[in-house]
Amino acid sequence: MAERGALSLLSLLCLTFLYTETTAAKHVDKGSAVQPFSPFWFTVEPQDTLAIRGNSAFLNCSAHSDAATPAHIEWKKDGTFMSLVSDERRKILPNGTLFFTHVVHSKHNKPDEGTYQCVATIENLGSISSRTARLSVAGMPRFASQPLPATARLGDSQVMACEVNSDLVAFIRWEKDRQPLELSTRLIQLPSGALVISNASETDAGTYRCLVENVGSSKLSDEAELQTVPETGEERKLEFLVQPVSVTKVTDASVLLPCVATGYPAPRISWMFGDKLLEESDGRVEVLGGGSLQISNLTEADAGIYTCVADNSNTTIEAQAQLTVQVPPQFVKRPANVYAHESMDIVFECDVSGSPAPTVKWVKNGDAVIPSDYFKIIEDHNLQILGLVKSDEGFYQCLAENDAGNIQSSAQLIILDPVVALPSFPPPSLTPNTTDHVTPGSRGVGSPAGPTPSAPRDVVASLVSTRFIKLTWRQPAEPHGDELTYSIFYSQEGTSRERVVNTSRPGEMQVTIQNLMPDTKYRFRVVAHNSNGQGESSAALKVATQAEVQVPGPAPNLQAVSNTPTSVFLSWDKPLTGNGEILSYKLYYTDKSVGKEQDIDIDGQSYSMAGLKKNTEYSFRVVANNRHGSGVSTEDVVVRTLSDVPSAPPQNLTIEVQNSKSIMLRWQPPPLSGQNGKITGYKIRYRKGSRRSESETTEGTQLYKLLDGLEHGTEYSFRVSAMTVNGTGPATEWMTAETFESDLDESRVPDQPSSLHVRPLVNSIVVSWTPPENQDIMVRGYAIGYGIGSPHAQTIKVDYKQRYFTIENLDPSSHYVITLKAFNNVGEGIPVYESAVTRAQSDPDVDLYDLLHAPYTPVPDPLPMMPPVGVQASVLSHDTIKVTWADNSLPKSQKVTDNRYYTVRWKTNIPANTKVKMVNTTNLSYTVPDLKPNTLYEFSVMVTKGRRVSTWSMTAQGTTFETTPSSAPKDVTVVSKENKPRTIIVNWQPPSEANGKITGYIIYYSTDVNAVVHDWVIEPVVGNRLTHQIQELTLDTTYYFKIQARNSKGMGPMSEPVQFRTPKTESSDKMANDQASNLTPKMGPSGNQPPRDPVPPRIKDGENHILVIVIIISVGAFTIIVVVVGAFLCTRRTTSHQKKKRAASKSSNGSHKYKGNSKDLKPPDLWIHHERLELKPMDKSPEPNPVMTETPIPRTSQDITPADSGLESNPHLQQRRNSYRGHESEDSMSTLAGRRGMRPKMMMPFDAQPPQQSVRNTPSSEPAPPATASSQASCPSEILADPEGSYHGSTTTEEEPSYSSNLPPLRSAHPHAHAHPLKSFAVPAIPASSHPSYESPALPSTPLLTQTGPPTHPHVVKTASIGTLGRTRTPMVVTVPNAPDVPETSKMLEDVDSSYEPDELTEEMAHLEGLMKDLNAITTAP
Asked: Is the Cβ–Cβ distance between 1365 and 1011 less than 8 Å?
């Protein structure tokens, strides 16, 4: 019995063990059985189709699945499922294709045209939807235009029109003489259907028509005959036959931008992409039909503005078109399959790209997902599902769509049972809270290793608000572990969808649930987790959030209306739930262009806001306030203020002279803040000189204007203003430009480019150059040839404005020869050669070197930056230019918000080897300082963003303003004139830093190098002459010369003094000047120079020195005797005799003549100033073409006449004194009255003369220098009494004044100043020889204020003296025929000075006054 009991117990234990193992095995199997994802996608999706009415049509669709049951295909039309059960005309084929037996389409019945989508469904799994496709039905062919009879000149272009419905253009073909016409690069069909015939030949003549075929029924156009005629050679206006039009295309498609021009000379058509010349490349970019541009395999980088430029030798015309390239949507990140448990939150990610930006919508099992509290669209594209429930399982699709197309991608959501563990890796689409929840669930749900925690205790809501609740609890009574984590499940009352939140760290027993709804009841429960898995759940806790009843609700009926361009009127109603008295309202407003929100407090329910920007979008919202605080805000209301006339002128107006008849204007729109509305056009005003202006207008998108038909060599002024619908805004400042006097020469090829520089890289060579130095020859472009060892392998042609080019796709470590030639329509010019070796592939310094030193940065391959556009150079001063540009890769506000920066590069071509300078900036402008004045600079800009860089932009040019010369003339030399010892020639070179166009020079010369500037004699030289002669200098005298240059801005610095000594004698052989000696001559005891040795130097040798001494002593003694006797006789004249002589001189004044034969010297030009009285020189030089400039500045004391004391105090008189110049020949003879009628006034341009310097070519009010013995021996009183009217003036010292008998004493304007020897008044005498020499006809000159001595006074001698203020020098004596030179002595001076008494001088002054009145009567007589 006991044995049987023991056996029974053993059996029971075994059964219990087996049951336990079986149960555990079942749990293990169930925990490891994760349902796999089911592959399900479309193999074929419908495509856009053009159907023909009455014909059949297909829309294909096919889906793939691994399920046992094949997918069931259904179709939607315009978003609604189609019912095809009883439809005999439309049916679904077994493979899923939608088949139309015949398409129905009429004007009022279009049942088949629309948008179609197929839906594939697998039972118990889900559904997916395909992309949408458009079925269009071709209409009946209708011709909007047909071919017309036309005439084409040989070599010209012609267009035959044929325009049909836009959807039928693809079905057009052309026939010539009713035979199919084969198209080519010369015969092309435009997108409109028109036929372009370029470079017409005689074979093109015939009859043309177009046909529309394969659209159900064919249709023929009218026939038109094309005739060809030879070119007459007459000039025809350049005009467009077809202009490019803006077009939108999709990537990878092709586009044809038409451009056909006609005219004679035949136009040359080129294309610009933005500001860059477009070159043909690799067959992708081609110019067809003589000018139309075809681009294949379009990319997004091809989008932009294309300009067709037609140019011949007479004019240039342009036409623009915008190419928009759309990019179909593409998935950057597709949604991924997701495993999840109920109550979890998940996110399906979907990232797409495209242009325009695609819109994204989500579909679940073929039905659109409607956003709600649990289904939310986050981060624009992602789908978030909160609180999963079992019914959320299925296929979710992300559908992206833009104007270029639509795409879809699907993902599957599988919700596992709570006892089934999630995969070991965290799904990437789970939210953070959900991810935290995965970890404990994966550690023991399937195979429990021990007990799980009991339910948490005392779950309470410790804090309840309107939108959040804080829960706390205590640890479970049976935790079965140390590190517990908790999950809090909550749901809104009345819904089965439960959400979960996990604690952030083990042991934490509180959590705050956010984003709850006010005044709403929620259910909460808490579950603990240990290492064995999820424990028991706590009892449900019901809590209601607080109601938001303390503050006001939103103000209803908010309205905003713009009344003026700067104000908006707003009104609203009182909130429906005010919850007490409304104390105030706060109005929030945001300038949409700025984005910063501002607010203002308002008491009422309306407000007129002023001071806003014109034509700007603003958003407004209103919040009501009561005693509890601010209420709920209204929705934003957006309103745009009214437009107005522009408040700013267009920017960056540039003027480019095209030729002698046309000028191109370019500009940029006014700044956005000053546009005040949509710019509808621009008004261009231009005028010639001060005439009334004319106006032209352009469209709002056209930022240029070519003005032709202008006069050649004429200066025009231009200004531009912008227009809106409200009117015209302010204009730019007047800018001037002058048309060319004649067009550039194109009768010969251009010269050689002035420089060529190359910089080798690994696979490219950067080539830069400067244009030919001769700018008068037309340059239409440059041809770059290159190759390994020979420059003739490849040739590239670039625009004439381009100065840089990168030759790419070269071999590393290879020797290339490069040639550059300028070309025009005549041909190519002389090439310039250069060679370079590309760098090795492994060169480690390439990148760094290129980055720091390369003048041109190659475009990076993957994602290049676009170069800046619209580069403008605005000259600010003589050394600064402001460079501005725009960046198309920035938003419209043109604000730099990223880490990009710009590099500005500038260079001048003079000298040609000037280095390029660069600077970096983060702004869209840069002011370049420290430039050279009057210098042309070229500027270009590139942009760098991280490791991406752009190419250099198109160059802009600017020439700095002029400023005063900053250096003196150089290489100043002084040489004597052959056979003219009293005449010297000054030569020099322009200053090295002229800083502008040199308009003249001023020569200063003096005998004292240390004299102040205003005591130097001045010789002005007009124009850019580099040589000048000065006459009648004193012999054997050291002179110092300085030269000063001037331009339109003023005077430059003076050169260093150059010393020159005149020859000692006027011997017949006219010995060469002694310029080598720099020693100062020894002075006599009185400070004057010693008497000159009249004996020529050639007899001064050792053998004849005794004879020389005897001759010198004899001649000197005889001269002294003659001078003393003559002085004695002169001083014995009586006062009555002087009066008689004066009366005779007075009566004959103005009518006496100067006698002499043709060999006599001409009488002087005498300027006598007394108040406003002038006697002006009137005779005209017989030499009409003088080679060198001359001025009436005195050279010797004989050339300077006295003036009254009021002259220097009268600036008007002094200005008139400096305004005349004359050219007289030595043998011209005339009376004073006769010269008055013959000689015209001549103005001396001397605008930039310093005020402290005066041209001493007129009488001075300062006392005369001391008289020489020779002048006293000539008896001036007798000379003045001579009936022939010859005269001679003596000079005196300041201490003992002495005056000629016909000149009263003159009072100095500066009584303390010393006499200036250059201001003496003296008269030249008869030359020493009876046969005086004449001026060289090669260098005509004018001995100013010279006088022929009377025959009755052979002892008149010529004196000369030049000195400085405060210093006197005895004039040198010139040998006369009848007496040798006698040196002056102090005794003789005293004798002369004592010959006049003060009473006599007073009487002489009175007589001079009478003489002035008589002269005044003579000059004013009719």
From this structure: yes
Pairing of strands 617-626, 629-630: antiparallel
CA 1141, 1144, 1147, 1152 dihedral sign is negative
Over residues 350-374, the pLDDT tens digits come to 999 998 889 999 999 888 888 887 8
Closest CA to 870 of 940, 780, 950, 808: 940
Cβ contacts of 215-223, under 8 Å, gap ≥ 24: 215/52, 215/138, 215/141, 215/168, 215/171, 216/52, 216/53, 216/54, 216/55, 216/138, 217/140, 217/141, 218/141, 219/141, 219/143, 221/143, 221/146, 221/147, 221/162, 222/146, 222/147, 223/147
User: CB under 8 Å to 408, separation ≥6 — which residues?
Assistant: 128, 129, 130, 131, 363, 397, 398, 399, 400
Determine the residue type at 694: E
CA atoms within 13 A of residue 461's CA, in its CB half-sphere: 19
User: Do 668 and 647 form a contact (C-beta atoms < 8 A)?
Assistant: no
Nearest to 248 by CA among 190, 179, 323, 319: 323
State residue 1116's pLDDT score. 84
Question: What is the rounded distance in angstroms from the CA atom of residue 328 to the CA atom of residue 1323?
Answer: 101
Strand stretches in 801-896, DSSP E:
804-807, 815-823, 832-837, 869-875, 881-886
Are 1350 and 1205 a contacting pair, CB within 8 Å?
A: no
Residue type, 687: R
Two tokens, residue 509: 């027993």
Contact 295, 284 (CB under 8 A): yes
Return the bridge partners of 362, or none: 398
Model pLDDT for residues 149-165, shown as the tens digit of each residue: 988 888 888 888 888 87
pLDDT band at 1112 (very low <50, low <70, confident <90, very high): confident
Beta-carbon contacts of residue 952 (< 8 Å; ≥ 6 apart): 804, 856, 857, 867, 905, 940, 941, 942
Summarize the confidence of residues 1-14 as an average pLDDT.
Answer: 54
Q: Who contacts 53 (Cβ-Cβ below 8 Å, separation ≥6)?
A: 103, 104, 105, 137, 138, 216
The DSSP letter of residue 112 is S
**What long-range pairs does 799-804 form, CB within 8 A, spacing at least 24?**
799/270, 799/277, 800/771, 801/277, 801/954, 801/955, 802/277, 803/768, 803/769, 803/770, 803/771, 803/938, 803/955, 804/766, 804/767, 804/768, 804/855, 804/856, 804/940, 804/952
Residues 19-51 have pLDDT tens digits of: 444 444 444 444 446 778 888 889 999 999 888
Give the lowest-confidence range in 274-278, 996-1000, 1130-1134.
Answer: 1130-1134
SS3 sequence, 997-1017? CEEEEEEEEECCCCCCHHHCE
Is 1000 in contact with 1046 (CB distance < 8 Å)? yes
Per-residue pLDDT averaged across 1017-1033, rounded?
88
State percent of the chain over pLDDT 70: 70
User: Cα 196 to chain center, whole Å?
Assistant: 38
Which residues face 401 on adjacent strands?
Answer: 359, 406
User: Measured between alpha carbons, how far apart are the two ends of the chain, in Å?
Assistant: 180
What's the pLDDT band for 601 if we cut at 50, 70, 90?
Answer: very high
Query: Which backbone phi and psi does 219 adopt, to 5 degrees?
Result: -145, 135
- Burial string for 436-462 (b: 16+ CB within 10 Å, else e) reads bbbebbbbbbbeeeeebbbbbeebebe
Rounded CA separation 210/142 (Å): 12
pLDDT in tens, 827-844: 999 999 998 999 987 755
Name the pairing type of β-strands 832-837 and 815-823. antiparallel
In this model, does residue 784 exceed pLDDT 90? yes
Cα 659 to Cα 314, 536, 753: the distances in Å are 8, 94, 21
pTM to 2 decimals?
A: 0.41
* Token pair belonging to 1396: 């006049």
